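Below is a filled-in request sheet from our internal design queue. Each sheet records the structural input a requester submitted and the sequence that came back. We keep these sheets so that new team members can see what a complete request looks like end to end.

REQUESTER: design group, bay 2
PRIORITY: normal
MODE: inverse folding
CHAIN LENGTH: 400
BACKBONE (tokenized):
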């Protein structure tokens, strides 16, 4: 079987993690994060639905949620599910974070929440989001879906804003195939989130069975010898059909599952969690070793930790000097089995299936980022010689 690497550094499961046993995953996770408690949900999207539902109860006159224009389409679906409207904020030039002046212009008396987003494990500027939100009376909800384990000033991300959430979806580090973690430093908001959970979340035997089977499949197939079947083949089929949105799994169902996170999967999470700190150390060291080779490529931007922050390293996020070189790089690398891919294919208004949910807007920087960015897996399975092959391939397609 041909070797295929995953596009992100997921924590591999051991078959022994799957043995049924009692374990308090929420307490273990809160303990590791250094916070009082977390609220477990069935996905990051569900955590966002629960949080926004609660915030809307508390500030019912406000119906807009300010999000980066280049983010996970599920963010727009979560906002829509609560009956609110996404308000798209452009990115800063050649950056994944919100543009300061666009952010100020996006906030107003209708703003319920601002959502700074810790993409690719990098820590976003929450202070800037807080300043804009406080100026208009809105909450800050940190989207840390891709950043479980990331820290700012020595504390977990998600605490500087009013609330934050992590995703435990497949491909995001620690995974229960799907899962979400909601947190807040504010006891009043925590109570509101618990009430919101009771109102919004309904048991579903079908979903808990399906997710259990999917998690077992992940435990078996998440290895370079089997990922061609589970990931590589569907990827090549989608690309052959000219469907990059399906290729990266951006083609979400608008009907969001909202059910409790099952006990068996929580126990699996407790066991895998013990290996997460070591895994994050290994992947951090590997990423830091590899950044310089990418930085040496003229016109390439690679994202590192901002001062005072210590992010996680699921993959390396970079931009090429122009769209042509990015496309040329992907033409060679996307199907090379080396874990090179793209994050989100479009700025949010450019996904056909979001047309009725997301307003059209002039978003030059978000569209530019979508056209020039690519990702390189930071899985420990990517060997140094394979990484250098990727670097040489990028060098070969640089303009000029
Ligand atoms: C994956 C993701 C989400 C949604 O999390 P799920 O657990 O997949 O529902 C939200 N925001 C961002 C930035 C993501 O990458």
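RETURNED SEQUENCE:
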């Amino acid at each position: 079987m041909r070797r295929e690497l995953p596009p992100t550094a997921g924590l591999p499961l051991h078959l022994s993690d799957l043995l049924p046993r009692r374990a308090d995953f929420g307490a273990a996770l809160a303990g590791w994060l250094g916070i009082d408690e977390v609220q477990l949900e069935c996905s990051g999207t569900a955590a966002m639905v629960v949080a926004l539902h609660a915030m809307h109860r508390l500030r019912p006159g406000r119906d807009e949620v300010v999000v980066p224009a280049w983010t996970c389409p599920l963010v727009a679906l979560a906002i829509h599910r609560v009956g609110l409207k996404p308000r798209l904020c452009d990115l800063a030039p050649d950056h994944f974070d919100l543009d300061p002046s666009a952010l100020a212009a996006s906030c107003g008396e209708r703003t319920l929440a601002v959502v700074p987003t810790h993409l690719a494990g990098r820590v976003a500027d929450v202070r800037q989001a807080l300043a804009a939100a406080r100026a208009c009376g809105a909450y800050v909800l940190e989207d840390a879906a891709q950043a479980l384990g990331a820290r700012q000033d020595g504390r977990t991300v998600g605490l500087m804003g009013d609330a934050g959430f992590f995703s435990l979806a497949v491909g995001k580090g620690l995974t229960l195939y799907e899962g979400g973690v909601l947190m807040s430093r504010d006891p009043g908001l925590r109570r509101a989130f618990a009430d919101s959970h009771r109102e919004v979340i309904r048991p579903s035997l079908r979903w808990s069975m399906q997710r259990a089977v999917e998690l077992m499949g992940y435990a078996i197939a998440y290895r370079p010898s089997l990922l061609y079947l589970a990931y590589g083949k569907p990827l090549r089929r989608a690309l052959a059909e000219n469907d990059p949105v399906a290729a990266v799994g951006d083609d979400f169902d608008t009907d969001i599952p909202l059910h409790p996170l099952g006990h068996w999967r929580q126990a699996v999470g407790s066991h895998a969690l013990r290996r997460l700190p070591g895994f994050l150390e290994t992947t951090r060291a590997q990423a830091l070793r590899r950044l310089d080779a990418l930085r040496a490529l003229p016109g390439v931007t690679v994202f590192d930790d901002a001062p005072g922050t210590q992010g996680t390293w699921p993959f390396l996020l970079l931009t090429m000097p122009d769209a042509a070189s990015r496309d040329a790089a992907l033409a060679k690398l996307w199907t090379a089995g080396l874990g090179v891919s793209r994050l989100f294919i479009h700025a949010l208004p450019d996904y056909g299936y979001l047309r009725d949910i997301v307003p059209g807007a002039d978003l030059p920087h978000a569209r530019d980022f979508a056209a020039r960015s690519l990702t390189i897996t930071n899985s420990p399975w990517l060997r140094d010689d394979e990484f250098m092959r990727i670097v040489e391939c990028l060098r070969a397609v640089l303009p000029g």
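SHEET NOTES:
- The chain has a mean pLDDT of 97.
- The domain at 1-400 is CATH 3.40.640.10 (Aspartate Aminotransferase; domain 2).
FILED BY: M.R.
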